[in-house]
Each structure stands twice: as structure tokens, then as C-alpha cells.
Design goal:
heterodimer, A: mainly beta, six-stranded mixed β-sheet, four-stranded antiparallel β-sheet, 60% strand, globular, B: mainly beta, seven-stranded mixed β-sheet, 11 strands
Chain lengths: 115, 115
């Protein structure tokens, strides 16, 4: 079994300040991990993914995430927020379940960026 | 390049009515998925099709049926809509469906209200 916990349902930052969106996971197997972003009235778009090649993963639009196995975390960061970053962000774990791939989505974190 | 196209974008139904949500992808992907998104719950898998000619139940299949019409198209049918099916529905596709690190491509969603 696997699970994903996004620790904050809502995060508000000022434009130009750092962003931190937190994600913890559990998995019986070594998982792949993703962050997806959803802008209003749009589908989800991949930001970045971790696949065991490197623990620090760089994604689109200046976002990064660090895989920490000891802490079972995969937090998303960005040094300087932009107004266009306002959206909902989903952490996703991909692992094996009864012989097939299973994806589990976190409940989402809504990022608000203040001018 | 259209990607994943869903129709309709919005729909209002009365309890007991039926309808079909349509989804098509133009990326020659083998696997297709239907998810529902409810506030505070992330995305939950309704049904998926690993390849043309096959369909399988996901986490929340009750009250739904699917058809993989051909490689491009995957439809979701509500035979007798219930208020509990009020949700936003997303169709997604992926290249093969078997690898842990494979990304999903999402449509822009269908907002369904059942009165």
C-alpha cells in the first residue's frame, strides 16, 4: 500500500519570496514521485519527477524538489515566486500494487501569490 | 497539437439521467484513464484502459462504465446519475502504462453537476 500526504492545503506567499510545498509519502517499494500543477480550469501538467537517478530534481518554471528517503519526503521549492505560479499543486507517488503500477495523488496544495 | 481532448466542458444533469463523457488523444498512447477530482481529495481513478481492447476498474468504479472505442478514444458513461457523482472528471493518457516513471497527459476536464 502507498499513501501521500501534502502537509498544507493552502500556502500564501508574496511575489519574489521563496515557495515551499511539503509532501510526505509512504510506499512498500522504491517509488517514482511526481509534482503536477493545475491552473484554474485546466488539466494537470507535469512539473517534475523523481526516478532514482538524482535526489535533487529540477523541473519547469524554476521549481525543484529534493527526494529524502530517510524522511520519506519530496518537498517542492522555488527561490522566488511569480504571480503566474498561483495554482494547485499535487504530489503523486507511483509504485507497484498487486503486480501493476498504481498512482496515488495527494489532496493538493493551493498556492496563492500576493503582489 | 491537441493532446487530450475532452467533451463536454460543462454539464448539468438531473438525478437518474444518463450521459457519456468523451475523450480522445492524438499522441498514439496505449493507456488511457478516467479520474474524478473532488475538493480536498486529490484525483481518484475510476477506470483505466492499459491498451486497446482492455479496461479495468480503478479505485471508485461504482456507477460508471467505460468503452475503449479504439486506440484514440475512451468514453465514460453514467447510466443513472446521482448527486454523489457531482465532480470534475479528467481523462488522461500515457505512452505505455507500465513504467513507474511514466508521465500522464491530462485533458482540461469536465465539470459535472447532478441535481
Amino acid at each position: 500500500a502507498q499513501s501521500v500526504t501534502q502537509l498544507d492545503s493552502h500556502v500564501s506567499v508574496s511575489e519574489g519570496t521563496p515557495v515551499l510545498l511539503r509532501c510526505n509519502y509512504s510506499s512498500s517499494y522504491s517509488p517514482s514521485l511526481f509534482w503536477y500543477v493545475q491552473h484554474p480550469n485546466k488539466g494537470l501538467q507535469l512539473l517534475l519527477k523523481y526516478t532514482s537517478a538524482a535526489t535533487l530534481v529540477k523541473g519547469i518554471n524554476g521549481f525543484e524538489a529534493e527526494f529524502k528517503k530517510s524522511e520519506t519526503s519530496f518537498h517542492l521549492t522555488k527561490p522566488s515566486a511569480h504571480m503566474s505560479d498561483a495554482a494547485e499543486y499535487f504530489c503523486v507517488v507511483s509504485s507497484w500494487d498487486t503486480g501493476r503500477r498504481a498512482l496515488t495523488f495527494g489532496s493538493g496544495t493551493r498556492l496563492q501569490v500576493q503582489p | 497539437n491537441a493532446g487530450v481532448t475532452q467533451t463536454p466542458k460543462f454539464q448539468v444533469l438531473k438525478t437518474g439521467q444518463s450521459m457519456t463523457l468523451q475523450c480522445a488523444q492524438d499522441m498514439n498512447h496505449n493507456s488511457m484513464y478516467w479520474y474524478r477530482q473532488d475538493p480536498g481529495m486529490g484525483l481518484r481513478l475510476i477506470y483505466y484502459s492499459a491498451s486497446e481492447g482492455t479496461t479495468d476498474k480503478g479505485e471508485v468504479p461504482n456507477g460508471y462504465n467505460v468503452s475503449r472505442l479504439n486506440k484514440r478514444e475512451f468514453s465514460l458513461r453514467l447510466e443513472s446519475a446521482a448527486p454523489s457523482q457531482t465532480s470534475v472528471y479528467f481523462c488522461a493518457s500515457s505512452e505505455a502504462g507500465g513504467a513507474l516513471d511514466e508521465k500522464l497527459f491530462f485533458g482540461s476536464g469536465t465539470q459535472l453537476s447532478v441535481l
